[in-house]
Write a structure and sequence with these properties.
Layout: H1 2-16, H2 28-43, H3 62-74, H4 80-86, H5 91-102, H6 117-126, H7 137-140, H8 160-174, H9 198-203, H10 208-220
Helix pairs in contact: 2-5, 3-4, 3-5, 6-10, 8-10
C-alpha cells in the first residue's frame, strides 16, 4: 500500500506541472460522423480495434483522448498516419471525436500469460524498488482503469501489442536513444518539449521482458 501511495504522489506531482486539460463542450453525434469516415478503419466505429497494433478507444477517458488528438495535430506526439488524419480537423472536431469514443461501451478483455502473471502483477502493483521502478497502479489504478481527472488512460483490456509498442516509444525518449526518426519516440507525457515526463522516466528503466510481461498482464486486467 505504501508503494501505491508513493507512486500516486509522484504521478500527481508530475501532472500538476502541466496545464489542466479542458475538453470543449462536444457533440457526440458529430463525433460519430467523423469517426465513421476518418477513424473507423483503424479503431472501429464503436472504438474496438480489430488490429492489435491500433488501440481500442471505446470508453476511454475523454480528457486523455482529446489530449492525444490535440498533441497529434500539434506534432507534439509523432505518428505519420495519425497526424495526416487529424490535419484537417478543427479543435471542435477533435473534441467531438474524443467525446464520441469516450461515450461508447468499454472494450473487452484480452488474454494474459499465466506463466508470467505473478511476476507481472508484482511489477504492475508495486514496481521494483531495487531498480527504481514505481508501480503502474499508482497512476493507472490497481484495476488499470486509469484516472479520468488526471487524464491517465485506461489500460485494462487494451491490445498487448499496442501497449508494448508505446512503452518502447516512451523508453526510447526517456533514454534519449540515438534514433533518427522522431516517430520512433514518444515524449508527449511531459509538460513541454525537452522535458521528461513520468512515462519516459518509468519506461527508461524497463527491460524488454518487463515490457512484454506488463503488456500481457494489462491486456487481461478487467
Amino acid at each position: 500500500m505504501k508503494k501505491l501511495i508513493a507512486a500516486a504522489s509522484l504521478c500527481v506531482a508530475s501532472f500538476s506541472v502541466q496545464a489542466a486539460i479542458v475538453v470543449p463542450e462536444y457533440d457526440v453525434n458529430a463525433g460519430k460522423q467523423i469517426a465513421e469516415t476518418v477513424c473507423a478503419a483503424c479503431h472501429g466505429v464503436d472504438g474496438v480495434s480489430v488490429v492489435p497494433a491500433q488501440p481500442n478507444l471505446g470508453g476511454q477517458n475523454v480528457k486523455y483522448l482529446y489530449k492525444q488528438l490535440v498533441n497529434f495535430k500539434a506534432g507534439y506526439r509523432k505518428n505519420g498516419i495519425m497526424q495526416s488524419q487529424v490535419a484537417n480537423l478543427s479543435q471542435q472536431d477533435l473534441a467531438n471525436v474524443a467525446g464520441y469514443y469516450a461515450s461508447q461501451a468499454p472494450w473487452g478483455v484480452g488474454f494474459g500469460n499465466p506463466a508470467t502473471n505473478q511476476e507481472a502483477t508484482k511489477l504492475f502493483l508495486g514496481g521494483d524498488k531495487s531498480r527504481g521502478i514505481i508501480g503502474c497502479a499508482g497512476c493507472h489504478g490497481p484495476d488499470a482503469a486509469g484516472n479520468t481527472w488526471a487524464a491517465f488512460p485506461r489500460l485494462g483490456g487494451q491490445h498487448s501489442q499496442y501497449i508494448a509498442t508505446q512503452l518502447k516509444l516512451f523508453r526510447a525518449a526517456g533514454r534519449e536513444d540515438d534514433i533518427d526518426s522522431d516517430d520512433q519516440k514518444r515524449a508527449n507525457d511531459a509538460a513541454k518539449e525537452g522535458e521528461k515526463g513520468m512515462m519516459q522516466t518509468v519506461a527508461s528503466k524497463l527491460s524488454d521482458r518487463d515490457i512484454r510481461i506488463l503488456a500481457d498482464y494489462v491486456s487481461a486486467v478487467h
